[in-house]
Every structure is written in C-alpha cells, then in structure tokens.
Amino acid sequence: MAAQLSIEHIRSLGGVARTFVAGSAICDYDNDTPRLLFVLDGWASCSKMLPNGTRFMTEFVLRGDMISTSLTALSRETVRAITNVTVMVFPDFTSLPKIEAPTFFYRIVIAELVRHQARMSERLANIGRRDALEKTGYLLLELGARIGTSRDYANAEYFDCPLTQADIGDAVGLSTVHINRVLRDMREAGLLSFRNGIVAFLDRPRLADLVDFDESCFDTTMV
Questions:
Q1: Source organism's superkingdom (predicted)?
Q2: What CATH class has 130-218?
Q3: Do the beta carbons of residue 11 and residue 61 sit within 8 Å?
Q4: Contact criterion met (CB below 8 Å) for 84 and 35
Q5: Residue spans per domain, the chain
Q6: Global pTM?
Q7: 7-101 has which CATH code?
Q8: pLDDT recorded at residue 54
Q9: 3 state DSSP class of 167
Q10: Which of 42, 66, 156, 186 has the fewest CB atoms within 10 Å distance of its CB?
Q11: How far is CA 174 from CA 65, 105, 195, 216, in A?
C-alpha cells in the first residue's frame, strides 16, 4: 500500500527540499515560522515531554505525511528525525493569510489534517482500551499499513522498521522490558517477529483479528 501522497505529487507542488540528519529536530513548539512540510523519505517522531521527565511518542511521521509547524506549536510537541529525513517545505498559508495557494493544495492539506485526526483517535483508543500485546500489535500493524509491506522475507509480509524497543514503548506507554517480553510472546505465538530492524507478520490475519485492527482507518487513497 502506497503512502498518502505520491512522492511525484509532492515534488510537483514546487516547495523547497531540505534534509534533516537522524537525531536532529525537524521542528518544535518554540518554532515561530509557520510551515508545512511533506515527508519525501525517512521516519520521524512527534513527542511530548511529560512533567516527570518521561517521553511520550504521539505519532510516527512517515513518507507522504505532512508536518504542520503551527499544529506542532499548538500541541507543544517536538518532531525529531529517527532516520535521515527529506522534506518538501512550503509556507503555511493557513497561518499566513497573505499567502495564496491553489485550491487543490487546500484540499491536500485538509485531507492530511483529517487523516492525522483519525490516527490520533485510533491511537487514543489503542492506548486506553487494549492490553500490552494488543497495543503493540496494533501499532506495528498500523505502521505496516501506512508504510507498505513486501513479501520476500521468509514468505511473510514484512517492512523495514528503524524503531527501537524504547521508541515502541514510548508510543504505547510501556517500559522497554515489557515491550521485549511482548515481542517475544508474539513471536512464540507465531504472530509477529521483530528482529534486526525488520517487522515480519507471521500471521497477519490472526494478529489483526486479535487486536481488532481496521486497516480502513489508515486509508492511503490519493487526494
């Protein structure tokens, strides 16, 4: 399954390309320049620091996704590159009223904001209503649906995943030790394997049924 917008479509919009190295901040809530960034390649994360000093991952940003610096500032989040990330940068016409944009660009931005909201609703339900295995399985199914999978890894569907167990734990509210145990349980149950940066779905239909995963919530149809 392809990303939300084709890379060709994003490039055709005429923005300025910029690359952020792994580990660097793409934007944070202190940034006062309203911009829209469309991801051409790479993985990033949106996170918040809680009062007790722990980090909570609110979203993983993938190829084809949009980052709004205005929304990041409003949410008081930091967007950081997990891998090297290349983006196409545009002025945020929604926050800079003197800048005009074509009608189709408005449609693209609105559609991306709607998708973002739908993912956030699913994320809240996942964290609040599912157990540890279900939370973790659901997140990895979501990432597979959004980034796309292949079938060349031991005849199983798989995708390359640069996340650490700590990243996954911060996204579902579990410790690294707990995530390690959950991943082991899923592997032993023949559901999923996560080794050497590869997530392989050993029995994707059974896992999706177990965690009540609805792939239509992550529809990647082109605008």
A1: Bacteria
A2: mainly alpha
A3: no
A4: no
A5: 7-101, 130-218
A6: 0.84
A7: 2.60.120.10
A8: 81
A9: helix
A10: 156
A11: 26, 39, 19, 26
